[in-house]
Write a structure and sequence with these properties.
Strand content: 5-15%
Helix content: 55-70%
Number of strands: 17
Largest sheet: 5 strands, antiparallel
Mean pLDDT: 84
């Protein structure tokens, strides 16, 4: 379903309808999902553009040659176009998540081309200065072939690490699979461009010697000199550095498990859905009066543009609600910050708290929909209590409510509204009914028609409107116990007898609603909390319930909602990621034919984790599913640079068997410093717009980008320091 197209058709219909309305009737829009979708797509496209510009600047600074920069830059539009065409061919829509995948990949799709072009340009410079220059075509071929192994394996690993995301189930899978597919396809497209087009363009643009500078850019020469002096100093403090890195890794693991957890980050929606719940049995007029008074209060807030209200919903609605519930759709001003929105929610909640007996639930539209999909309830924390006796359930659900109130981070604690209301009970006297020739089943159907009504298959047509025909007794014959008792029932013999002769008809109180699930009766209690507090609040609730609540035999409870969904998704990702890491290790061992070399490369994973954890601590302090996927992606990206560096060490050792280990490290790091820095900075700069300037529609990619940005900083720095040390240690 294309939401934007449907909304356009609705707008056209409303425009036609407005022309027919009386002057005192006005139609106002309180929520339009296409506004959020359009803003999301617009902001993600802008993030792609910003990331691309930053990547181009990095390339020009390091290469200092417009020809090499142009060759590398061509990868961005070509990879994105190829990715979009492939997605379209498989029936995928270009939505906020697929565009998010392309935005996240911006910094990585140039990496293969950067490594290829930088090495080609460097070898062409060396060839130009050589006393015995070789043919340019041979130099380009050999230079491209030299890094081909690192490029291909690095890209394979990036793709393999994202495989767990493709196996995510439930809502997490529906959200993140399009992002993962878009990312994987764009990375594969960039590999094909780098393998096929980049060498060809290099030959076309760099064939003439005058296009090749005799020396490297001054900034790169300066960086290499400083790095070399740092590397020599590092050898003297090897134990201190390695011990410090180990301690940092252990601390980052400890910090990671103390962070808050959430299923999804807070979405920057410019709307609120407020539900005000009066005591069960409150009639529609009282509910409407409360709603109208609250509307006046809402309109006093400058952050609120429009307010729409519905009190109760028909039983035939796709989401029927009783007359005691008011549903407000609130439009907020464009560009409202999350802090202003949080303050407004607090003010609204405080305002409702002044009305006795009124409970409130405040959510945003998409957040409410997600909660509803996850648990069937409009709250992120849901506790379901199951059992056979409704009175016992009501007793223990009140105990659970008191326990929840002891958790200070929880708010909007709401027991499913169940109350005793007057009811007329009709119990058939089976023996008496059979003496009159009446069958119990047919008798119950008759009673159902008389007092509850039945809809016929026929309809009444008035113009373009159709109405169901409902058959039941007129109101005076349904609302009096005495009249119901004396209602005449036809018997097969033709005789009419009063209902109270064949049934006990009496008035008593009973629950207004009985819900069943898992072959048991069920009562629900819901609660809300700040995003950063949800996981900790649920864990505290679990501890308190284990300590304070003892349920009778046959009664049990389940905690559902965001916490359960987030926990299940994390478990899936963790188990699959362990398998992927083992597979990567095996793949590297086969490629390098050395378990020792593979272990050195895999050391990059903990190095990347350090920066990712620090980045989360310095920003939201919350680990969402997007953050976890960010770590998975980060491990793939950071491994590429380690492969590039270690592979060069191995090549130098083969080419120069007599060289000492420190000389090999010096030559290898000097040779690969530029591409490592360029690919790392390109990846980081590609993430900058998403990480530092989150906007509507980029909230899911924001925590992912934060992790990658922080992890690339630590991984790059530590790769250039720790990996040479470990290689030196292992080879010695």
């Amino acid at each position: 379903v294309n939401t934007i197209e449907i909304n356009k058709k609705i707008e056209q219909t409303l425009q036609e309808l407005r022309k027919t309305l009386p002057g005192d009737i006005e139609i106002k829009e309180t929520y339009n999902q296409s506004n959020f979708i359009n803003a999301s797509i617009r902001n993600i496209l802008f993030a792609i553009l910003q990331g691309s510009v930053l990547v181009i600047i990095i390339l020009f600074i390091f290469l200092a040659n417009w020809r090499t920069s142009f060759i590398t830059i061509t990868v961005i539009p070509l990879s994105i176009i190829v990715a979009i065409l492939i997605l379209k061919s498989f029936g995928q829509t270009i939505n906020a998540m697929t565009l998010g995948g392309l935005a996240v990949s911006i910094g990585e799709i140039v990496d293969d081309a950067i490594i290829d072009v930088e090495n080609i340009y460097k070898r062409l410079r060396q060839n130009k200065l050589s006393p015995n220059p070789r043919p340019v075509l041979d130099v380009i071929f050999n230079a491209s072939y030299e890094v081909r192994h690192s490029v291909v394996y690095g890209t394979y690993i990036i793709i393999v690490v994202l495989v767990p995301v493709l196996f995510l189930s439930g809502l997490a899978g529906q959200i993140f699979k399009p992002l993962a597919w878009a990312y994987i396809i764009s990375i594969l497209a960039s590999l094909l461009v780098a393998l096929i087009l980049t060498p060809a363009l290099s030959y076309y643009f760099l064939v003439k010697e005058e296009n090749i500078r005799n020396e490297e850019p001054k900034i790169l020469i300066k960086i290499k000199e400083n790095y070399l002096s740092i590397l020599k100093g590092v050898y003297k403090k090897e134990k201190i550095i390695l011990f410090s890195v180990l301690i940092s890794f252990v601390l980052s693991i400890c910090i990671f498990f103390t962070l808050g957890y959430s299923f999804l980050p807070e979405l920057g929606e410019e709307n609120l859905v407020v539900m005000a719940i009066a005591p069960p049995g409150t009639n529609l007029q009282v509910t409407q009066d409360i709603a109208l008074n609250m509307e006046k209060v809402f309109k006093k807030y400058k952050e609120i543009i429009n307010v729409g209200n519905r009190a109760g919903r028909s039983e035939n609605d796709n989401e029927p609600i009783s007359s005691n519930l008011s549903h407000f759709d609130i439009s907020l001003k464009e560009g409202i910050s999350q802090s202003s929105k949080d303050k407004l929610i607090k003010n609204i909640r405080d305002g409702f708290a002044k009305i006795p007996g009124l409970a409130t639930i405040i959510r945003s539209f998409i957040s409410e929909t997600i909660d509803d999909v996850i648990s069937g309830q409009k709250a992120p924390i849901v506790i379901k209590l199951y059992g056979s006796d409704l009175q016992v359930l009501r007793k223990y659900i009140n105990e659970i409510s008191n326990i929840l109130k002891r958790v200070h981070s929880l708010n909007e604690i709401q027991i499913e509204p169940i109350t005793d209301i007057p009811q007329v009970h009709i119990k058939i006297k089976q023996e008496v009914a059979s003496r009159y020739g009446l069958k119990v089943g047919e008798l119950l159907k008759t009673i159902q028609v008389y007092f509850n009504g039945i809809t016929t298959t026929q309809k009444i047509l008035e113009g373009q409107k159709t109405f169901d025909i409902l058959i039941w007794l007129d109101k005076p014959f349904r609302n009096s116990l005495e009249v119901i008792q004396n209602t005449l029932i036809d018997t097969p013999s033709g005789k009419k007898i009063p209902l109270n002769q064949i049934a006990n008809v009496f008035e008593s109180k009973g629950p207004n609603i009985i819900n069943r699930e898992k072959n048991s009766r069920r009562i629900v209690i819901t609660a809300n909390a700040e995003k950063k507090d949800i996981s900790k609040a649920v864990e505290q609730v679990q501890r308190l319930l284990e300590q304070k609540l003892v349920l009778p035999s046959g009664y049990f409870l389940e905690i559902e909602g965001e916490y359960k969904q987030q926990k299940e998704a994390n478990q899936q990702l963790f188990l699959l990621s362990v398998l992927v890491v083992l597979f990567i290790y095996l793949m590297l061992s086969l490629a390098f034919k050395s378990f020792k070399t593979s272990l050195i490369i895999m050391l990059n994973l903990p190095l990347a984790l350090i920066g990712g954890v620090i980045a989360i601590v310095l920003t939201s302090g919350i680990v969402s599913i997007a953050s976890v996927i960010g770590f998975i992606t980060l491990f793939g990206i950071s491994t590429r640079n380690t492969i590039l560096l270690v592979n060069r060490f191995i090549d130098l050792k083969k080419e120069n068997p007599d060289l000492g280990i420190e000389k090999i490290i010096e030559l290898g790091t000097q040779d690969r410093l530029a591409p490592i820095l360029m690919t790392a900075l390109a990846a980081a700069c590609g993430m900058l717009p998403l990480a530092l300037f989150p906007q509507a529609g980029t909230e899911i990619e924001h925590p992912l980008a934060i992790v990658i940005l922080g992890g690339m900083i630590s991984a790059t720095f530590l790769t250039l320091i720790v990996i040479p040390l470990m290689y030196r240690k292992f080879e010695s």
